[in-house]
Amino acid sequence: MDRIDVIIIALYLLLTIAIGVYVAKKASKGLDSYFLGGKSIKWYYLGLSNGSGMFDVSGTAWMVGILFLYGVKSFMFMWMWPIFNQVFVMMFLAVWIRRSNVMTGSEWILSRFGDDKAGRASHLIVAIFAVVASVGFIAYFFEGVGKFMTVILPWDVSLVISDFTVLNSEQVYALVIILLTTIYTIKGGMFSVVSTEVLQFGIMVLAGILVAGYTFFEFTDAEITALIPDEWTTITFGTELTGFWAGDFESFNKLIDTQGYKMFGAFVGMSLFKGFFASIAGPTPSYDMQRILSTRTAKDAAYMSGFTNLVLFIPRYLMIAAIVLLGLVFIAPELANAGGVSSNDLEVILPQVINNHVPVGIKGLLLAGLLAAFMSTFSAFVNAGPAYIVNDIYKKYFKPKATDKHYVKASHIASFAVVTLGVIMGFFAESINAITLWITSSLYGGYVAANFLKWIWWRFNGWGYFWGMLSGLIIATLQFMIDQGASGYAEGSFLYWYSHIPAIYLFPVILVFSLLGSFLGTWLTPPTALATLKNFYTSVHPWGWWKPVREQLTAEEQVGKNNDFGLDMFNCLVGIIWQSSMILLPIFLVVRDYEQTAISLLAFGVTSLILKFTWLDKVKKIEN
Predict the structure, then answer these.
(1) Predicted confidence (pLDDT) per residue in 197-218, tens digit
(2) pLDDT in tens, 294-327
(3) How many C-beta atoms surround the C-beta of residue 486 within 10 A?
(4) Which of the listed residues 63, 380, 393, 424 has the most CB atoms within 10 Å of its CB?
(5) Do 35 and 221 form a contact (C-beta atoms < 8 A)?
(6) Closest Cα to residue 595, out of 225, 345, 348, 254?
């Protein structure tokens, strides 16, 4: 690496830590200040921070790999998470969540189910889920940033004792970056996280623009058109995904045939099916929910969520598309000569391109941008996870009366504990893809049913929530364990067949078991106290089956029926198209498909205009 690139990265790290430590004094006022910034941070700063937190380096490396191999259709792979849950949050969930006026997602559960045994059971399982999810994501980041830094940096920093490698370079680099990020995150809480993430987002945007601009300077339109197959830029698809690579790159088709996405029509359909339920279930109790709860009002929560969607996708995919284009020019011929591309090759395209095919200066900014992507997402989880340990477990069940200073110190300890557990888990992870599958199947799979029902059905109670969550998580975890042992099963056996079904197709199995636990837990136990239901309905005011509660409201409490279901679903449909246009626009621009670029821009303009009248004008009328 050139000296100027090292200087750029060093300056970025120093500036980030300095800002994080400088604002740390604001976090010492109490838990509300530490975890939510005192609910005083402006919505556009929180929106930039939220977008920065979603711009992670592991996910970026994965997106680079799938766009490289599958082309433009790969943006639909993101629906496995699903990314359009952000659209549902923007349209109605952010307002519902913020109206609760609590500190964490599990504390929010108490406002829905009450503070009796059933409510506390549901409260506790959400807190545990949030901590486990934070640990899992930290492991995911540990694995990703280690792979990334090892390919980029030239120094072997392995820790060897008596010819035994205690830590390899990948692990040492990951530990150093995690330590630096943990210092300012723990010191300053939400104020440090948001302040540094706004800076980091600016660096990521600049890096994306520069690397995309470099590709326009370096390659002509004719060169790009000759390089990329027509099918690569096509978003239409049939029931099956067929390989479209030809000539020297024909061997790439073998990987397309074996990655589990062959039945592409069914895959997209199942992703949309899962995505609908997962999106209405709402954000998981993590940094996304913390940003919503940190806003000053319900109106600001809606603005913040919409702004997150608006600022995130174009700069992120501008960077991704430019790196993929450089990979197609320089890396693809090397892989073809080596006999084809493998799953592991896809994960290291990003660092290989930056290491060998980006000019001095831009490389430093791009590295700083990707480090920023890692640090912002990591810090968001380090801030969110301990909130559940301290506020929802320690404070509620062990030490309900203590000073704010004591709770802030407890938060520091909890943060170190979460980071340590995540790092330990990262040491044993096989790959980024393995952790991705664990998070999307085992964790998120078991979350959906109970959290879907909690919004729409008045009779659903705390025990139903507890058993719905628990049964879903148990089945999802068993499924993941079966998948991990796939290589040891006898061919032709049930376990062999089951373990080779892609995880996305098994979502209905998890959903059915989770719904069964939810309904049995609900019908076999008494309903939630009417006073709790009335308070929840009048403050949150969701749509769904709430008629028995609505009929019990007095004249003073009456808020009427929420009739916005149809409008909200229409806005979500338009919002998914709006979000997709912001993903496709930079990709088509970078690969010089100007006709598709114009169509994407038109789609963005039309959907933005529609949402102005159907969503934005409605949000402006929300009373604070």
Answers:
(1) 788 788 888 988 999 999 999 9
(2) 888 999 999 999 999 999 899 999 999 999 999 9
(3) 12
(4) 380
(5) no
(6) 225
* Full-model pTM: 0.86
- Per DSSP, the three-state class of 505 is helix
Backbone angles phi, psi at 545, to 5 degrees: -90, 85
The pLDDT, as a whole number, for residue 239 is 84
As given in the structure block, the two tokens for residue 107 are 């504390």
Q: Find how far residue 69's CA is from the centre of its chain.
A: 22
**Residues near 514 by beta carbon (within 8 Å), at least 6 away in sequence:** 446, 448, 449, 450, 468, 469, 471, 472, 475
490 burial type by CB count under 10 A (0-12 exposed, 13-18 middle, 19+ buried): exposed
* CA angle centred on 154, ends 150 and 160, rounded to 5°: 70
CA distance 116 to 111: 11
Helix (H, G, I), strand (E, B) or coil at 361: coil
CA 177 – CA 371 distance, rounded (Å):
8
Report residue 480 as tokens. 């993941």
Name the β-bridge partners of 159.
167
Give CA–CA dist 150/158, Å, rounded. 11
User: What residues pair up with 167 in beta bridges, in sequence order?
Assistant: 159
Q: Provide the sign of the torsion angle of the four alpha carbons 242, 247, 250, 252, taken in this order.
A: negative
3-state secondary structure of 342: coil
Q: Any idea how long the chain is? A: 624
| 382, 181 Cβ separation under 8 angstroms | yes
Which ranges of 233-297 would DSSP assign to H, the alpha helix?
Answer: 252-258, 264-281, 287-294
- Residues 462-498: pLDDT tens digits? 999 999 988 888 887 787 777 767 777 888 888 888 8
Three-state DSSP class for residue 339: coil
Please tell me the distance from the alpha carbon of residue 509 to that of residue 479, in angstroms, as a whole number: 10
393, 396, 400, 402: CA torsion to nearest 10: 40
**DSSP class per residue in 82-110:** TTTHHHHIIIIIHHHHHTT--SSHHHHHH
| Contact call for residues 12 and 371 (beta carbons, < 8 A) | yes
How far apart (Å, rounded) are the C-alpha atoms in residues 531 and 89?
27
The CA distance from 55 to 49, in Å, is 10
CB 472 within 8 A of CB 449: yes
